[in-house]
């Protein structure tokens, strides 16, 4: 089966640590008070869109963002820890000026694929869990589309659309995984922004999935 799926990937709204430019990984920080007004544009962009699947990081800043922009999707969302931001370990909650003179921090900034924050997550682990989520989400979409075809559901004629509510680093990594020829460093996902990527998903004879962007 060949299928074109639109992935809409959203970065959560602002937290106090985002405003203060602190490293924010697995700490469970709530959105800023009054963030509804800032998220109004995102709510408008998502208004009325139908989704075959909705995924979110389990951290509050993501679930609260979804609650504020599409509360009707809260009973459909699947929370997935693999969509969490990278774990920054000992550098969590720190700002650049606190870390800039630490040699291990400079090495991580220059070569994140070879270094990891003390007590934090390696690039290989971060990339692996996001890649596995990607593969599983595509597999679930293919399975759901196949079920709809088998039952003659007229909705199966529509292009499936998947919503993913996550964090800045994960948005950048998903973009790198899904779009050929782009790098992690050449894109910044702003808080409350969305990225649309049409993905061609197909099942091979062995039953595995492959994808390419369209």
UniProtKB/TrEMBL annotation:
Active site: 12, 85
Source domain of life: Bacteria
Record's keyword terms, sorted: Hydrolase
Positions bound to substrate: 11-18, 61
An example Gene Ontology molecular-function term: fructose-2,6-bisphosphate 2-phosphatase activity
GO cellular component terms, semicolon-separated: cytosol
UniProt GO BP: negative regulation of glycolytic process; regulation of pentose-phosphate shunt
Pfam families: His_Phos_1 (PF00300)
PANTHER family: FRUCTOSE-2,6-BISPHOSPHATASE TIGAR
Annotated protein name in UniProt: Histidine phosphatase family protein
Taxonomic source organism: Paenibacillus zeisoli
Phylogenetic placement of the source organism: Bacteria, Bacillati, Bacillota, Bacilli, Bacillales
